[in-house]
Structure formats: C-alpha cells, structure tokens
Specification:
The termini are far apart. By secondary structure, this protein is mainly α.
Amino acid sequence: MNWDAIGAIGEVLGALVVIATLFYLSGQLRQNSVALKRNNEFALNVSMYQSQRFAHEVLSQSSTDP
C-alpha cells in the first residue's frame, strides 16, 4: 500500500465523519427549535396569566373603593 492509497482512505474517512457531523448537528438544531418554541409558548402563557391577574386586582380594588 502506497502513500497515495493511504491518503485517499483518509480523505474518504474524513468525508464520512463530516457527513455524520452534519446529521448530528441537524438533529441538535431540530431539538433546539422545539425547545425554543415550547419556551416561547410558556412565556406567552405566563405573560397572559400575569396580565389577567393584574387586571383582576385592579378591577377588584376599584369595585371595593368608595
């Protein structure tokens, strides 16, 4: 086996590792997108709850003030 063959094998293995890395990164991006979507939905729900709670407190205070 000469150095050209060894170099070719190394290039093929390197290309396979790059492809495997791209698949791994695409999976990580997909998981991150799902986590961000869930986090945004949670933040929106918390914000809506807090604004409704504030409105309820304001209305309940205004109805009890003389």
